[in-house]
Structures are given as C-alpha cells and as structure tokens.
User: Which sequence fits this backbone?
C-alpha cells in the first residue's frame, strides 16, 4: 500500500487499481474510506484509479489537529498527492461530498486540473446543496417499491429530528437504483468505513466561501463532467444542471435508473459515460 506524507506530517494512504493513465479519485461520505468506490464499476479497465483515503479514514493516519478535517484544509493533501505522483496536470474524479474538496482544489490550483468528473456530487463550495424538499421529491418517485413504506417512515422520523441508527439504516434503499444484494452489502459497509468525527468537521464554519469560489472558476477552462443519477436526491438532476451551469466547460449527464452510486446500478453505462468523457481531447 503506497503512502505519502502531508505537509503537516500526517501519513496518507492511497490505493491503485488498474493500469493506464492515472485518474485521481476522491471519496465522499463525508470522510468515508475509499474502499466503497471499488473499481468504479470496471472503470479500472480503462484507467489506473488512484484512490485516496482522506486523512483519518481507511489506511491513512489521523492528524494531530482534528481541525484539519475541514474540507478546505484538505486541499493541501490533494496537492501533495499530485506532487508525489509527479503529475503536472491531473484527471480528477470525485463522488458525493468529495465534490466540495475537488472544487476547492480547482479554485486554488486551476492550472493543475485537466478534467474534473463530478459523480452525484455536492457543490456547497459553489453555494449549491440539496434540501429536505429535494429528498422528499426524489423519495416520492420510489413509492411503488416494496421497501418504500418502512423506508419512508424512517425518513419522516429523521426529518423530525431522529438520529437513530436504525432509521438511517432503513432509508438506505433510497440511495440505490436497485435495492438488491449488491446494494445491501454496499450499504452495510458504510458504518465501518466512516470517520464520524471527521465527517462532522468536514463542512464546519469557514470551509466554504461560495462567492469567491464561483468567481475563481468563472473563467476556468478545464472540461467537467457532472454525472447525476435519475433517482438521486443529492443532487437531483435539475440541481446537478445548476452546478454544471456554474462551470464554463461543464457537460451534464443523467444516468437512467441510477441512484447515488451509479457505478453499482449500471456499471456498463457508467463506465461508458465516464470513459467517453475522459477520452476526449
């Protein structure tokens, strides 16, 4: 397992899967170990995936200062990985809450990013986020599903203030296009892979300055793919379109039948969309 040392001395681990041109991958969670990304539905057959375990997750060390879990303070870790790999410019892929980290990296190092692939990604860094109303809108589309009554009741409890682990477990089907054995196993791995303390600090006050970030990226010339899941709530496809409009060279793709983890819902369609984008020159 390869490692590098961050500027503050924290040991960071990364995992490489596949061969070919490197594709740096930042996980979401927030602060979930990169293992849940797997080989991104077989994307490793097209690119060498370099999967970073963010500080305090997976095989990476815990920092002496927990305040460095804040998203903007992890930008230096991404830059340290780029330098460690000896790459002048990078193709960067990120998922979910990792979208904020990737966007902040782009604001500070725009010349280092050749392409950015945002997979069902948040963009609080740009002032765009999902809401309870978005969750409700997406959830209503799943009413015919056999698991819907119990899952929706748990959602209502969460919206009313419940922090019960059982309620959070019960809403997991909403995040997948198909609630099959593969999805259930994937969902079951989440608790062990997440650093809850780090996740709570990730978006702490001061992490984001949306107006400054939008201004910094207003003239950015890197190509961007914003890939949304048709059934996802964070972001809804129309919210993903709002994110794409804030980035000059962004294109939007909506994967039919997909939830928050589109590489699980339809690996072939996912890999085709991402590989086609990355192969453009």
Assistant:
């Amino acid at each position: 397992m390869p490692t590098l040392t961050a500027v503050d001395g924290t040991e960071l681990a990364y995992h490489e899967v596949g061969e070919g041109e490197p594709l740096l991958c930042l996980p979401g969670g927030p602060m979930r170990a990169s293992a849940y990304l797997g080989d991104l539905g077989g994307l490793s057959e097209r690119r060498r995936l370099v999967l970073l375990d963010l500080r305090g997750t997976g095989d990476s060390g815990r920092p002496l200062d927990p305040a460095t879990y804040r998203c903007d303070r992890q930008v230096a870790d991404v830059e340290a990985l780029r330098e460690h790999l000896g790459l002048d410019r990078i193709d960067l892929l990120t998922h979910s809450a990792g979208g904020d980290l990737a966007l902040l990296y782009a604001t500070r190092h725009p010349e280092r990013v050749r392409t950015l692939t945002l997979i069902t990604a948040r963009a609080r860094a740009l002032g765009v986020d999902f809401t309870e109303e978005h969750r409700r809108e997406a959830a209503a589309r799943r009413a015919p599903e056999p698991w819907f009554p119990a899952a929706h009741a748990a959602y209502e409890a969460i919206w009313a203030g419940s922090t019960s682990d059982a309620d959070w477990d019960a809403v997991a089907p909403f995040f997948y296009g198909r609630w099959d054995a593969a999805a259930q196993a994937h969902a079951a791995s989440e608790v062990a892979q997440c650093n809850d303390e780090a996740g709570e600090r990730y978006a702490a006050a001061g992490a984001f300055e949306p107006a400054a970030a939008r201004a910094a990226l207003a003239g950015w010339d890197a190509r961007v793919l914003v890939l949304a899941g048709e059934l996802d709530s964070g972001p809804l496809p129309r919210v993903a379109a709002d994110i794409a409009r804030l980035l000059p060279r962004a294109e939007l793709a909506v994967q039919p039948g997909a939830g928050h983890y589109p590489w699980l819902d339809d690996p072939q369609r996912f890999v085709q969309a991402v590989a086609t984008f990355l192969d453009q020159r």
In short: The first strand starts at residue 3 and ends at 5. The chain has a mean pLDDT of 97. The chain has twelve helices and eight strands.
